[in-house]
Design a protein that fits this description.
This protein has helices at residues 3-11, 44-59, 71-83, 96-110, 125-137, 156-162, 185-195, 214-217, 286-302, 304-326, 353-363, 387-403; strands at residues 30-31, 90-92, 116-120, 142-146, 167-173, 198-202, 221-224, 239-242, 332-333, 345-349, 366-367, 369-371, 375-379. By secondary structure, the chain is an alpha/beta fold. β5 (167-173), α7 and β6 form a beta-alpha-beta unit. Bound molecules: pyridoxal-5'-phosphate.
Amino acid sequence: MTRDEAGTLDAKDPLSHFRSRFHFPDRNLIYLDGNSLGRLPINTAPEVDRHLNDEWGDRLIRGWNEGWMELPFRLGDKIGQLIGAQSGETVVADSTSVNLFKLAAAACLTQRPRTKIVTDDLNFPSDHYVLQGLKTLLPSLEIVVIRSSDGVHGPVEELVSAIDDQTAVVTLSHTVFKSGFVYDMAPINRRARQVGALTLWDLSHSVGSVPVNLGDTGADLAVGCTYKYLNGGPGSPAFLYVNDHHQRLLANPVSGWMGQTRPFDFELTYQGAPGITHFLTGTPSVVALKTLEPGLDVVLEAGMPALRSKSLVQTEALRTLWENRLQGLGFAFNSPQDAECRGSHVSLGHAEAYRIDLALINEMGVLPDFRAPDNIRIGIAPLYTRHVDVVDAVDRLCTVVESKAYEKYSRTADGVT
Ligand SMILES: *Cc1c(COP(=O)(O)O)cnc(C)c1O
């Protein structure tokens, strides 16, 4: 794609007006990290300000009965529209890691005497840590980690054959954080159902970027995060999904008063509320929920089909630019070549990735991120990434490598990358 072609695509892009819904304090910065922290929507600050002054400030504790208590469910249902859930199957609470713990533990407890958890080595490290922590409580658990043969594609066939009648749970990242590989859920869900295993999907890199249909593909459980493609703000609360059929069977092991039948009776014996409610634990983080909603609304307004088709054009442009320009400069394409199983970010491997990343950020006005040991991750957020941004970013990447501008930086990593 040339810059002119990119400009033509931008001019007829049906999503182009969504760019004006976001805060752009630095017009020259090409932000390619919307998959790690989405941009600030224009509506967020006024909405939060209104909440603080009019709701907290004026209404004080009366606010709980004027909409705050419903927020985890109301926003959960909005997210549910993006992931193929029915109303009442999704709730917003806690962080992704905590929700994963709650659902993995709930699943392993009901699935006893089954002891196997099946996952892969492309799964997010925190997900592995959560499973390892769960094993300290349930030592009979066996965590089976299926390895990807190339570090890019999920080991689909090996996973399917590892799922057996001893498997309690299969848990995977639907879109892999490093390579951007996207699993086809249906065959894995089907196999799990055949042998009575439960599936638990981490949708953190999928929600708002690739189509997901938990209901139609027969998924059981899911979790995901809202500060990436949903633009919910730093550390905005995560969500969890429990298929309606399982809500009665699964018990939340972190049982707290927000999941109690009547929390304000202050009964001393826990009795889980019906439906999705008993997967809540403590008091909802109201300010953070208010911060999340405007970003989520923009995604809903744009709609997944339009977002996905623009994202595919842009990651495909990155692939052809890699083929024509970056490959010759020592870059590897560490994401699927096949667009159908590629999410909305692309990883470019280079022996000098870390220093190139620093030069891009410090000198070139391009902000991607770096994932150890040697990946520059380019996140496409179709709500605000233009086609010319993709072409310009690749141009600047070439400049950094050809001019060896990266050589003045140290190889030692520090801080958030
Ligand atoms: C970003 C991300 C998380 C984040 O987990 P938190 O507990 O919210 O910090 C979890 N899983 C995956 C796959 C992610 O991409």
